[in-house]
Design a protein that fits this description.
EAL domain-containing protein; binds guanosine-5'-monophosphate; TIM Barrel; alpha/beta; 259 residues; binds manganese (II) ion; binds sodium ion; single chain; globular
């Protein structure tokens, strides 16, 4: 596959870049943080989304150096925002981790190093791991995550609700945030909202809060969805209604607007 063989040189040539999508507090719409979403500016094919190349990078192992680059770059950017908004303190940066990165023995050391060199506090970093990556995870896969959580890094369970995980299993995982999958948000778009989806979200929020986990909702596209999810007790939200993924400047202006 052409894209696969082009990946290592693309990393060397700096063809990857990151877009940031804000996460907001559902209560007042102020910025809570931003998720880093990697893109590849391919010289022939133009801008490619992660769905086009992350699976290839996973397959070849290039995800390890690529993921390290994303972490460094996103942490550097977050440190910069903090610097520019000295008292606008609580901004957090969310970075996705793939299963191969979790298996990479250098992960904890690299993240510790990146945080130390940047001066960003561990609590400002949130690592997103998909629910499916952790289903039935053995203790040795959870160990690095546990270690990071003890350092103060937040771990979010991404795409939550799609992986059929045993809810009781949540207690065993070192996670502090559930990111509710977009499919639930879609059910809130109808008028009235899908009653089954409402019950499910209500149940998940109540369970999450009783385990002291925060709930982030993905894919919020309308004011009605935001209102419904707020009423159901969700904490933070992400979606086109607030902002599409974009250049780092965009987050900067949102932070200025909040100040
Ligand atoms: O918005 P977008 O099409 O960029 O995201 C598609 C998917 O790609 C999301 O599920 C997201 O988790 C994943 N993704 C985006 N950036 C990264 C990254 O840096 N590393 C990994 N492993 N996945 C990413
Ligand atoms: O990590 P994850 O797969 O959750 O990444 C977020 C993905 O969701 C990215 O592809 C991003 O572009 C996409 N996305 C973000 N907000 C919205 C939204 O409001 N609606 C839809 N359909 N997709 C969204
Ligand atoms: Mn994500
Ligand atoms: Na997701």
């Amino acid at each position: 596959h052409g894209l696969t063989t082009a990946l290592p040189a693309a990393l060397d040539r700096g063809e990857f870049f990151i877009e940031y999508q804000p996460l907001v507090h559902l209560g007042d719409g102020t910025v809570h943080g931003a998720e880093a979403l990697v893109r590849w500016c391919h010289p022939q094919h133009g801008v490619l989304g992660p769905d086009r190349f992350i699976p290839l990078a996973e397959h070849t192992g290039l995800i390890v150096p690529l993921g390290r680059w994303v972490l460094e770059e996103a942490v550097r950017q977050a440190r910069f925002w903090k610097h520019r908004h000295a008292d606008g303190g609580p901004l957090r940066i969310n970075v996705n981790l793939s299963p191969t990165q979790l298996h990479h023995p250098g992960l904890v050391g690299e993240i510790t190093d990146i945080l130390e060199r940047s001066g960003l506090a561990p609590r400002a970093l949130c690592l997103e791991v998909t629910e499916s990556a952790l289903i039935g995870a053995e203790e040795d896969l959870l160990k690095p995550l546990r270690h990071l959580a003890e350092m103060g890094v937040d771990i979010a369970l991404d795409d939550f609700g799609t992986g059929y995980s045993n809810l009781a299993n949540l207690r065993r995982l070192p996670v502090s945030v559930l990111k509710l999958d977009r499919s639930f948000t879609r059910g809130m778009q109808q008028h009235p909202a899908d009653p089954v989806d409402m019950k499910i979200v209500e149940g998940i929020v109540s369970l999450a809060h009783s385990l002291e986990l925060a709930v982030t909702v993905e894919g919020v596209e309308t004011a009605a969805q935001a209102a419904q999810l707020r009423a159901l007790g969700c904490d933070t939200a992400q979606g086109w209604y607030y902002a599409r993924p974009g250049a780092p400047d965009r987050i900067h202006s949102l932070l200025l607007a909040d100040a």
